[in-house]
Design brief:
Blueprint lengths: L8 H22 L7 H8 L3 H7 L3 H24 L5 H14 L2 H4 L11 H28 L8 H17 L5 H11 L18
Helix pairs in contact: 1-2, 4-5, 4-7, 5-7, 5-8, 5-9, 7-8
């Protein structure tokens, strides 16, 4: 019988899942998903393969559970931060900072050339992205209603473009974070001076 980690079976189960999630995250940072086997994950997590199968029927199910687990923690922390803010432009800054803090593996696992996830796994992974996108949609609508952002923004297109930009930045920081925030706010039509956005310089002098 495997050694119980923690004071109860439920605590043992949760700690084992955390170890497996951490192992998967570390492996995804170094390798493509299709090259990662259950055996490698079990070894990295220091758990037996039987224990792995007790928690997840296959590695695709593990990937989905990992994404949902990460999303729940991220969204809870993000909403907690946003609950203290009453300015849509400042809320955008917080959203951007939080997204940039994420590991690139959280957004989407790397895959080798020509490799694809099965349709059901891809669909379920998309669900964790939608949860985060809905937070951004709320910020954008609030900013448009208050007149802080352009009133003619296409919210769906803006969400896709903004998140794609942030995912690319999370993998390789090409811009200073503050400069990126200013760039995004300018694109949203934020009023100069809002949330620290610089006033335009008078070039006539």
């Amino acid at each position: 019988m495997p050694k119980i980690i923690g004071g109860s079976l439920e605590e043992h189960r949760e700690r084992t899942r955390e170890k497996i999630f951490s192992a998967l995250e570390e492996l995804l940072e170094r390798d493509a998903f299709e090259r990662i086997t259950f055996s490698r994950i079990a070894t990295a997590a220091q758990v037996g393969r039987t224990a792995m199968y007790n928690h997840f029927p296959d590695k695709e199910a593990l990937l989905v559970e990992y994404a949902m687990h990460q999303t729940a923690g991220f969204v809870d922390a993000l909403r907690d931060d946003l609950s203290r803010i009453d300015s849509p432009p400042e809320a955008i800054r917080v959203y951007v900072r939080r997204q940039l803090e994420l590991h690139i593996t959280f957004h989407m696992p790397r895959q080798g050339k020509g490799a694809t996830l099965d349709p059901d796994t891809a669909k379920r992974l998309r669900e964790h992205v939608v949860v985060i996108e809905n937070v951004l949609r709320t910020i954008l609508r609030d900013g448009m209603d208050r007149g802080d952002f352009r009133g003619d923004l296409d919210i769906d297109a803006t969400v896709r473009i903004l998140n794609s930009l942030l995912v690319s930045q999370a993998g390789a920081r090409r811009l200073d974070d503050s400069a990126l925030e200013d760039f995004i706010l300018s694109g949203l039509g934020a009023v100069p001076g809002a949330a620290g956005l610089a006033e335009p310089q008078d070039r006539s002098a």
